[in-house]
Amino acid sequence: MIAQTQKNRASRLALVLLMGVSLSACGASERLSNVGQAPGMSPIVNPQTQADYKPISMPMPAPEVAMQQPNSLWQSNRKSFFKDQRASNIGDILTVVIDINDEADLENKTDRTRSSSENAGLDNLLGYEASLGQILPDAIDNANLVGADADSSHAGSGKIEREEEITMKVAAIITQILPNGNMVIQGNQEVRVNFEKRILNVAGVIRPEDIAIDNSISYEKIAEARIIYGGEGQITDVQQPRYGQQVYDILFPF
């Protein structure tokens, strides 16, 4: 039974390693085909036609019916009298200002100690305690038949220091207007310098009231914000461990 279990584990390990080698081969073949070429740029497409695009659905208040009084140009659902040039319809463009300067410093320490002791004996048992010597070894003491001691201690400490700073701007497109007037935005930006490509993606939900007069909005006013900043290219590849090392780190138990 033990031999069969070890055989099954070895088979699963071999299968995982084979899958890792296959993925590595696929990635290696793609990289070999791009030797000497700069990273390709993604085409400009309609976000709503992408396979991973999903319209956002959120709780909405009851719809309001616009009422217009006779001999009046004002409608009850209007929020401003004059029209400005800020983004307000699907397809309009606005600027997202990203200025992240976060710093976190966390430190925790835990100490725990516990000790216990148990003793049990059988001094008297209707006179039969004298007969225990016929069953148990001579060295057994009736008054100290059972004794147990336990000590445990635990000490743990941890410290986290993190600092992030990103300052940039990116243009985003309004892709959806929710029933309550909030707008869904999405923006993608790619910049290639030599053989390194910088990628910036931003998405989320904004309020029209938060758009500044210069048609920009700050990132902290974006609800459900998703900001991705990364890159592709030769330098990024060198900074990543090999596939074999990643598989080894996952499978090695020590």
UniProtKB/TrEMBL annotation:
<comment type="function">
    <text>Assembles around the rod to form the L-ring and probably protects the motor/basal body from shearing forces during rotation.</text>
</comment>
<dbReference type="InterPro" id="IPR000527">
    <property type="entry name" value="Flag_Lring"/>
</dbReference>
<dbReference type="Pfam" id="PF02107">
    <property type="entry name" value="FlgH"/>
</dbReference>
<feature type="signal peptide">
    <location>
        <begin position="1"/>
        <end position="27"/>
    </location>
</feature>
<keyword id="KW-0998">Cell outer membrane</keyword>
<keyword id="KW-0966">Cell projection</keyword>
<protein>
    <recommendedName>
        <fullName>Flagellar L-ring protein</fullName>
    </recommendedName>
</protein>
<keyword id="KW-0472">Membrane</keyword>
<keyword id="KW-0449">Lipoprotein</keyword>
<dbReference type="GO" id="GO:0071973">
    <property type="term" value="P:bacterial-type flagellum-dependent cell motility"/>
</dbReference>
<comment type="similarity">
    <text>Belongs to the FlgH family.</text>
</comment>
<comment type="subunit">
    <text>The basal body constitutes a major portion of the flagellar organelle and consists of four rings (L,P,S, and M) mounted on a central rod.</text>
</comment>
<dbReference type="GO" id="GO:0009427">
    <property type="term" value="C:bacterial-type flagellum basal body, distal rod, L ring"/>
</dbReference>
<keyword id="KW-0732">Signal</keyword>
<dbReference type="GO" id="GO:0009279">
    <property type="term" value="C:cell outer membrane"/>
</dbReference>
<keyword id="KW-0969">Cilium</keyword>
<dbReference type="GO" id="GO:0003774">
    <property type="term" value="F:cytoskeletal motor activity"/>
</dbReference>
<keyword id="KW-0975">Bacterial flagellum</keyword>
<keyword id="KW-0282">Flagellum</keyword>
